[in-house]
Amino acid sequence: MVMDKLSNSLQDALKKLVGAGRIDERTVNDVVKDIQRALLQSDVNVKMVMQLSKSIKERALDEDVPQGMNPREHVIRIVYEELMKIVGEGTDIPLKPQKIMMIGLQGSGKTTTTAKLARYFQRKGLKPAVVCADTFRPGAYQQLKTLCESLNVAFYGEEGNPDAVGIVERGLAEIDKYDVKIIDTAGRHSLESDLIDEMERIHAISSPDYKLLVLDAGIGQQASEQAKAFNDSVGISGVVISKLDGTAKGGGAMSAVAATDSSIAFIGVGETPQDLEKFEADRFISRLLG
Ligand code: GDP
């Protein structure tokens, strides 16, 4: 079970509940304090941590321990349920013909994730094709082209042409016969107005079924603001958290997901095209708390 993988201090705090006949306020406060510490270390938004603590405390003290459960199991379930409300079940991207637009800041892992997704659909028996509309980052074209070639995935790009919108228009016409069309758009170092403008124009011309925002697991507290700006501009239908193979736990990205009312579709767990996993809330939550 998910909570068996918790940090030692949290395990210790929860142990106090094992023998307890009823749940007393001091023990709950100890448990909540440990949860707060873990979540803040994982970069979860401070306000969110406070709200969560409040609901956990209230529920742990107010609700009767259901029959057949001990107080420890009861509190664990409350913690899990409250976290699930924030993290969400995850977005299920259907296995059918569709257009997907990738968005995110430069360096977030957009291009790598584009190749990962193409491989994912390819392995499910669909025919993917990729359009490189990242005309901003030097090397993006070559990087994506090489990745696609290694995967035997169809690729469209126009090296040296800065007209991203035109590339998308021509690219989509060129790859019309493919099932899953993935558009890799340009990022910037920060959300500048020209990026927003370009995204909106690409969005208008391509009418994507899904807009996937790629967020670096290490993004921290500024994630929510960025995600909101992307959401206001083209709308986010799902999030991919990249680089979860590192030390970062993705709490900032999770806060962004909550702030934009979206949910997580995939996680990136390495640099190669096979390092993509479908999001699993259980594992993500235990990592946040661990
Ligand atoms: P873009 O600017 O958003 O297109 O970013 P890239 O796809 O080029 O990724 C930036 C860097 O992050 C590259 O060095 C990638 O290899 C690396 N990267 C992307 N996704 C992951 C991941 O899930 N795990 C790790 N460890 N590195 C990743």
Approximate helicity band:
40-55%
Query: How are the strands of the biggest sheet laid out side by side?
Result: 3-2-4-1-5-6-7-8
Ligand types:
guanosine-5'-diphosphate
The helix/strand series, from N terminus to C terminus, equals: HHHHEHEHEHEHEHEHEEH
Total helical elements = 11
Stretches where pLDDT is under 50 for at least 5 consecutive residues are none
Radius of gyration: 21 Å
Q: Please state the structural category.
A: alpha/beta
Q: Using DSSP, what is the number of strands?
A: 8
| Mean pLDDT figure | 90
Shape: elongated
Mind describing the biggest β-sheet?
8 strands, mixed
- Termini distance? 14 Å
Query: What is the percentage of strand-forming residues?
Result: 5-15%
Description:
The protein has an 8-stranded mixed β-sheet with strand order 3-2-4-1-5-6-7-8, with helices on both faces. A hairpin with a 7-residue loop joins strand 7 and strand 8 (276-278). The mean pLDDT is 90. The chain is α/β, with parallel strands linked by helices and 290 residues long. It has helices at 8-15, 25-41, 46-62, 71-87, 110-123, 140-151, 164-174, 193-206, 223-233, 251-259, 281-289, and strands at 98-103, 128-133, 154-156, 180-185, 210-216, 238-242, 264-268, 276-278.
